Amino acid sequence: MNGLNHPKVLYVSQNDSKADFKSIFQATQKASEGDQIVVGPGIYSFKTTEEYFPIYVPPHCHLVGSGVDTCKIDGGGSLQISTRPLDPYQSLVLLGDKTSLSGFTISNSGGHAVSNEQGARILITKNILKDNGQHGLLIFGTNKAVVQNNRFQNNGTKEKQLPTPRWDGVAKQGHQIFIESKPNVKNDVTIIDNRLEKTFADGIDIEVFDQPDGIEMHVQIIGNTISGCGRYGCCMAGSYGPSNSNVYVEIRNNEILDTKETAIDVEAAISLIRSTVYNSKLYVNIVDNKIKTCDCGINLFGAFSPSENSHAQYNVIGNEISNTKRYGIRAISGVGMDRWPVKDTICQAIITNNRIHDTGKDPIFAQGGIDNGSDDVKNNNLYLHLFENLFESTKKIIVNDGLPTNHVIVYPNSQPFERNSEIIPYDNP
Fold it and tell me: For 324, what's the count of Cα atoms within 13 Å in the CB-facing half-sphere?
């Protein structure tokens, strides 16, 4: 009897007559827990080997290709874009619990290249995920995901844009890596040493949306190169709708280049639906990243309306930021939108030892609360530590309280800054 103590090696080959299977799909249907499915060189698609998608990797199994240059899974345009809800089954490869995927080029899905069953623990390493219609990788409520030494290229080829549920505008769909939180799982993700090159929307997008209250997430983004994003390099919010979320993110030693909008964009709360977010918390360390050629380098927002009592804590340390159209670093505690209130936000930011040059506007801009279509912006406070940031002598750090009852509190012994007492409008590109 086969089981965890008696794993088998199942050999798949498009061309080798001695192989156990010609089709990866057939091998996965026969695999048992602990088996390793080894795939030889070839192009594996419906036309060539009668693959049926998604190819499901059963729990405790490992899918190993011969290498990205020789072993290719081609979706041929099959599968569909999914939005609300996102569907992990619209993926060419679907990973079960305690599985791994390595050594493939996976391309031409109408939906995603790879995803996972909810709650799975997965390892994805040494693959190329490219030319897929929606997301390269959909991480769907994992207990633990490690994504290491992969290349993501030209995902989001369908260039899907959806109307936002709340305001006039569109949301781009088509990220290299999309991290979707789920309840009753750890939502623990590590993304390390990958190359993400050219996508329709974001390099990495972290989302808490359409979920119950009380979601918790832990994400590490370390040592990646992210370039050619049609929107943000890294984008995340403590909540896009649910309340009482707790999200912890580490962004360290990445290189983020040539993003159309902001390289790193973070906010504790920004509701995409017509309901107030309460008590959302976001904790982010942004350390030793190199950011070049973008609209803004780093955006640090507390909350957008409708939100009350949200909390953000940001440590921005040792980053190099250059060639931005607007700000190097921008921090705002509360932004009112569409006549909805944003109140009682606490945003704490330590900004130190950053090297900022060639910015179109201020190297560092800090604001308490401002409106972008709402006059109900009250008691949003930004607590700011500024130490040893370097920038051109002709530039200044600008601090602005914004609307009445909102404040920027700069801690003693911070480096010099200029406080502007006028109400500076919200600067949206």
Answer: 30
Q: What is the pLDDT of residue 2?
A: 46
| Residue 300, number of CB atoms within 10 A of its CB | 27
Tokens (6 digits) for 79: 């599968």
CA distance 20 to 11: 5
Rg (CA), the chain: 23
Half-sphere exposure (Cβ direction) of 337: Cα atoms closer than 13 Å: 21
Q: Please state, in angstroms and rounded to a whole number, the distance separating the CA atoms of residues 64 and 97.
A: 16
Tell me if 75 sits within 8 A of 81, measured CB to CB.
no
Rounded (10°) CA dihedral 254, 257, 262, 264: 0
Q: Which structure tokens are listed for 151?
A: 């290349």
What is the C-alpha to C-alpha distance for residues 413 and 400, in angstroms, rounded to an integer? 18
**CA of residue 400 relative to chain centroid, distance:** 30
Region 368-379 average pLDDT: 86
Q: How far lies 104's CA from each of 33, 270, 374, 377, in Å?
A: 21, 37, 50, 51
Determine the Cα–Cα distance for residues 255 and 288; give it in Å rounded to an integer.
Answer: 9
- β 160-163/170-173 pair status: antiparallel
**How many CA atoms, within 13 angstroms, populate the side-chain half-sphere of residue 352?**
12
Angstrom CA distances, 202 to 88, 90, 177, 226, 402, stand at 19, 19, 8, 9, 30
Paired tokens of 321: 């930021």
Amino acid at 347: C
Q: Which residues contact 53 (CB under 8 A, 6 or more apart)?
A: 46, 75, 78, 79, 91, 92, 109
pLDDT digits (tens, 9 = 90+) for 389-427: 999 999 999 999 999 999 999 999 999 999 999 999 998
Tally of CA atoms within 13 A in the half-sphere of 132 that contains its CB: 36
253 Cβ neighbours under 8 A, 6+ residues apart: 222, 223, 287, 288, 289
Q: Sheet harboring 277-278: ordered strands across?
A: 277-278, 307-308, 342-343, 377-378
Single out the residue of 248, 247, 198 nearest to residue 225, CA to CA.
198
| Residues 398 and 365 sit within 8 Å (Cβ to Cβ) | yes
Calpha distance 377→335 (Å, rounded): 7
- Domains recognised in the chain with CATH numbers: 9-419 (2.160.20)
Residue 249 sits at the vertex; the CA angle it makes with 247 and 102, to the nearest 5 degrees, is 115
In 65-124, which residue ranges form alpha helices assigned H by DSSP?
Answer: none
Strands 355-359 and 121-125: unpaired
Helix (H, G, I), strand (E, B) or coil at 30: helix
**What per-residue confidence (pLDDT) applies to 273?**
80
